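Journal club side-thread
Mid-discussion, someone asked how the predicted structure for our own chain would compare to the paper's figures. Pasting it here so we can look after the session.
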Amino acid sequence: MENKDLERSNNRIAVVSVLVADKSEVEKLNGILSDYGDWILGRMGIPYKEKAVSVLSVVLDAPVEITNALTGKIGRLNGVSVKALFGKM
């Protein structure tokens, strides 16, 4: 098995859900997501104006440590909630 295959085999698919209530943190959030762009497969954002919140769903293929680091940084933002769901595969 090549090194890249070995690295990839340690990855887990994860869906990271983000709720943004403080719009002043969006620039910081986008910067964090950009830093982890190599691991992100896709991202979808939905503004929910009636509740004054934005909902993001981010799909990653990354080692658990990378996903945990990403969610930790996002979780430190004011007015932002984050949770990760890991696939069993």
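Post-session note: The two ends are 19 Å apart (CA to CA).
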